[in-house]
Structures are given as C-alpha cells and as structure tokens.
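INFO  loader      accepted 1 record
INFO  loader      residues=448
INFO  predictor   begin
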Amino acid sequence: MRAILALVLLCSAFSGEAQAEPSADTVARGKALAEAADCASCHTTDPSKPFAGGKRIGTPLGAIYSPNLTPDRETGLGAWSDDEFHRALRYGVGRDGSRYYPAFPYPNFTKMIRDDLLAIRAYLATLTPVHNSPPPPELRWPLNYRVVMRAWNFLFFQPGIFEPNQQKSTEWNRGGYLVTGAAHCGACHTPKNIFGADRRGRAFGGGLVQGWFAPRLDGAERSGLKSWSVGDIVEYLQSGRNGRSHAGGLMAEVVANSTSKMSDADVRAIAVYLKDLPAGKPDPVVTPPPQAEIAAGKAVYAHACVACHEADGSGTPRIYPPLPGNANLQSVDPSSTLRVILDGAQTITTPRAPNPGSMPAYAKQLSDQQIADVANYMRNSWGNAAPLVTPAQVKMHIGESRDSPMRNCTSEVRVFDVPRNDGHGSLKFPPVPERSPESGTLPLPGHC
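INFO  predictor   done
INFO  writer      dumping tokens
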C-alpha cells in the first residue's frame, strides 16, 4: 500500500512538473496576445530593455510609472505565481493585495479567459530578466492612496469574461473579444468621467489622451467610421495609413508595436467588429465660420499646406492624407489636429508601408490666430463640418507641444509670411522670424 501511494505521489510530481513548462504553442499565443495588448508601448522605456517598465504615463490626476514585466525575481514577475498574475489582470489586485490604478487596463483584461492570461505570462517568462524598480506614482490626493481604488472598483468595475453574441459570426465575436479585452481600444477611444472611468452609454465615442484626441470608432457619420470599409480599417491597422487617414501621435505607436504585428485574421476580426458598431451620440450641428475667417484660413492654407495637400485638399493618399471627409479632422475635439499643426508629423513606416513622409511643425511659424484660422478652414471646407477652434485652444496646446517627443527634431523649411485681413480690407503681415544668416531658412522643431 505504501509503495502504491509513493508511486502515485511520484507520478503527480512529474505531472505537475510537466504542466509547469508551457508549450511552444502557448508561448506563441501569449506573444500574439501581448502584441495585441500593446504591452511593449507602456512597459518599455529603454528599447534595449524591453518590458522592464518605468515609463511615465500621464493622466489628468497625475502620473504613474509602468511596472517591470520581465522575469526578474526581485523587481519583475519572476517570483509571481500563476494565480497572482491572473488576479492582477482579472481583478486589478497586486501581489501584495494593493489595488491597481485603471491606467493599467484591468477593466478590459478582465474579459479575457484564464488560459489566455496565463499564455501571456508564459511568454513574459521567456524574456531576459532586467533588474529595474520604477518610481512610485505621482498622483494627487486622495488617489495617492491605493485604498481609494476599492471605492472606484465598487462604482465602476465589472469583472467578467467576454460573452459571445450567438447572433453574430465567429469572426465578429473574435473581434469583440480583442477590441473589448486584450486590445483595450476603449481605454483611449471612450470618453472618461471626472473619476477616470468610462462614461456610460458613450462606448467608443472618442476620448482625450495625453493631449491627443482618440477619435470615435463608432458609426458616426462625420467623425466616426461610417465612411470607412472593413478593408480601410484593416489597411490602417496593418500599415498605419490608408486612402483616408494616417496614424499619428499615440496611435502611431499602437500600429508600430501592436496592430502591424497581429495576424491577418485577428486584424480583420477587429475591423469587422468595429464596422458593426452603431453610431452613438450624433455629431453636433455646426454653424459655418464667418467668411472673413474662412478667407484668412484659406490664405494660411495656400502658403503652408497646398504644396502637399493640394488646393482641393485631396493630397496624395497614403503619402499626404486627404482632408475632405477626414474623420479625425472633423472630431468635435480639435486636439489632434492642433498637435499635428503645432508639432508636425512623421509618418510611421511598417513592412506594408515602408515609405516615410513628414510634415513640418508650425508652432514657431504661425500665430495662435493663424493656426486657429487654418484649422477652421480645413475643418469646414470641402464638405467638412466641425466646431470652431479658438486661439485660446491653440495656446493651451502650445504648452503640450513643448513636451512632444518630436520637439528636438529639426529640419530647415523656407520661411513664409502669411497675410491676415484686419477686418478693414487691408492685409497685415506677421513679424518675420529670425532666419539663419547662412541659408535664409528657419530650423523648425518637430520636422523629422
């Protein structure tokens, strides 16, 4: 009897040891899910030390620093058990029992099944361990006390895995599982309330994130995806551009580190799900700008934009994005449009779209009024319609543009003077910026 018991225990030990070693397929699935979740973008500060954490993530209530996901036993996940990892992603509870802040998207990861969460852990365990302890959060009172998150979870957090819709296709349900779970699209593209929680009834209605506006993903006519096809969405996610728009700001990072690496089937599933989202809150009824403002904006556009975007705004699709019907340009919140004008833009390159492109920054070239004028002209021409931008909004974003990661890039662009009608029939020219004495050109931050 003792011999039989010993044999059973021995077999159990070998069985447990075998289960502890994940298969190659599990690790591969975990890698794909980690890419879908874009873990690298938030958890990598130094590219030579991927997933080692320490990246500062700004929020309206302060900043937090991403944790170390490498298998280092002291500062990373090396000493964590599967149950501890599962509890962190499913319920937002740390190894020590403390509550995470929702900048870590556990409200989305809760929709993932346990096997997928542990597959991510299996992949992370294959990384090179890095010893790195990120700084503590820099949040304002009372959120600097994690215990407050118990109340937040009680009010706003609903744990539970994604429930398939039996009336929809397998592809649609896969897309829903990714969009609402691993890819956590709503973390940026859903507006938040004053507590940082999703606003009820406004799913995928667009949200402000670190000075950029993540546009609507629902079927809104002007500022959503109504005019996009499934193929348009697939092309955009895989290459960072399509015949209608280019990825910029934080979305460019998502494409580079996440969606461009996903399988064709998963990207198409996401596109099918997004394209099926109904329109939420209607786009606002817009009063066209006064003709004097349109004329002023058109003058700025003629000097600064027409060479690439053409007089009719048609641009060169997939190189210089078209402006007529551009959903991002027509968003109620003009933040992304203003950041691009102020900071410039650099088209990301992906295996499917390797040709680069860039746009110069105009923060030092144009006045606040001129930037507002040209933004209003583009947002309300060629059939577009969007609320007016004010110089005060431009000024607010100038401070944010100084913190832009593109601000130290330089390129030389010819200086031009843009006239503005003073309301009495005469044209006034802004002061000419100081030119480089050698070349007669002005170095512009943000043009890479």
